[in-house]
Design a protein that fits this description.
The chain has helices at about 35-40, 230-235; strands at about 50-55, 60, 65, 70-75, 80-85, 95-100, 100-105, 110-115, 120, 130-135, 140-150, 155-160, 165, 170-180, 185-195, 220, 225, 245-250, 255-265, 270, 275-280. It is mainly β. The chain folds into two domains: about 15-30 and about 150-280, Immunoglobulin-like, CATH 2.60.40; about 45-150, Sandwich (Immunoglobulin-like), CATH 2.60.40.10. The strands form four sheets. It has a six-stranded mixed beta sheet with strand order 3-4-11-10-6-7. Strands 13, 15, 16, 19, 20 and 21 form a six-stranded mixed beta sheet that branches. A hairpin with a 4-residue loop joins strand 8 (about 110-115) and strand 9 (about 120). The longest helix is centred in the C-terminal third of the chain and has 7 residues, at about 230-235. The protein is elongated. It starts with about 35 loop residues before the first helix and ends with a strand. The relative contact order is 0.20. Residues about 5-50 have low confidence and may be disordered.
Length: about 280
């Protein structure tokens, strides 16, 4: 299946040891290193080193190859990005944004010099997320590129809604992706803890109260994969169809909790894109 508020920095404790502080980040171990032979057959066929980029007036860099042979470029909102494509024939390049299986015009405000093989863009306010681009030079030459605008980690808690009451058995679910992933969803595991919320001496829940500093966070576990999400595939690309996660929770005593979801980014082994929802268990 696969920060928000925290990062996994230290090593050496099991995932179910429970966090020592609210983020709990110092307890998360990175995934074990896989052998090269395991992934040799998944090497991209396109030499993405032929595609170069630079941000603003910075140095030129080669583009990271994705498993599907496209290049992946991260850019901030309002930042200039320039892409130099491989040499093309005399006809130069035509460019498109690909949404689903449909080719559309390039994003608003971008510019392609097809003969020079140069694409430039400064994403304006409102442009956030993943943009799949294709640059075509003749029937056989297509250069795919994925531009990720803004933070690449996206985590959503869909159920339960924030501030709701839930039964003693309920489902915590949503989805999490790394839009800059070079293989799959970019999230290798999603973890969760429940933080009891602080109450006053009378047992009331004051407005704006936070987690009880004297309470021990409760380990929920590692998520199970959720059902395939075709709409995520249409929005972000087919690699993200399996981004859903699901926790079946039935171990919390009645009370109010902050449920914290911690996705671990495959490329870094770090917790990034954490999200919290507050619920009251009846």
């Amino acid at each position: 299946m696969m920060g928000g508020e925290s990062r996994a920095a230290a090593r050496g404790r099991p995932l179910d040891a429970g966090p020592r502080r609210r983020g709990g980040a110092d307890l998360i171990d990175p995934p074990a290193l896989a052998s090269q032979a395991q992934y040799e057959g998944q090497m991209p066929t396109l030499d993405c080193r032929r595609i170069r980029i630079r941000h603003g007036v910075g140095d030129w860099q080669f583009v990271s190859p994705n498993q599907d042979a496209s290049g992946v470029v991260e850019v901030a909102q309002g930042e200039d990005v320039e892409v130099r494509l491989p040499p093309a024939g005399s006809g130069g390049y035509l460019g498109y944004e690909v949404v689903g299986h449909e080719r559309r015009p390039l994003p608003l405000g971008s510019m392609l010099d097809g003969l020079a093989g140069t694409f430039t863009w400064r994403p304006a306010a409102g442009f956030l997320g993943s943009f799949g681009l294709e640059f075509s030079s003749g029937a056989e030459t297509v250069v795919p590129l994925r531009l990720v605008v803004g933070p690449p980690m996206r985590t959503v808690i869909e159920t339960p809604a924030n501030g709701t009451e839930v039964a003693s058995s309920f489902v915590l679910s949503g989805w999490s992706v790394d839009l800059a992933s070079v293989s799959g969803t970019g999230v290798d595991i999603v973890l969760a803890w429940a933080f009891p919320v602080d109450r006053d001496a009378s047992g009331a829940l004051p407005a704006g109260s936070g987690p009880d500093p004297g309470a021990t966070p409760i380990w929920i576990g590692a998520a199970s994969p959720g059902p395939p999400r075709s709409e995520l595939g249409r929005i972000y690309g087919p690699a993200f169809v399996d981004a859903a996660y699901r926790f079946n929770i039935s171990t919390l005593a009645p009370g109010t909790y902050d449920l914290a979801v911690y996705p671990r980014r495959t490329s870094t082994g770090q917790i990034e894109g954490a999200r919290i929802v507050r619920v009251t268990v009846r």
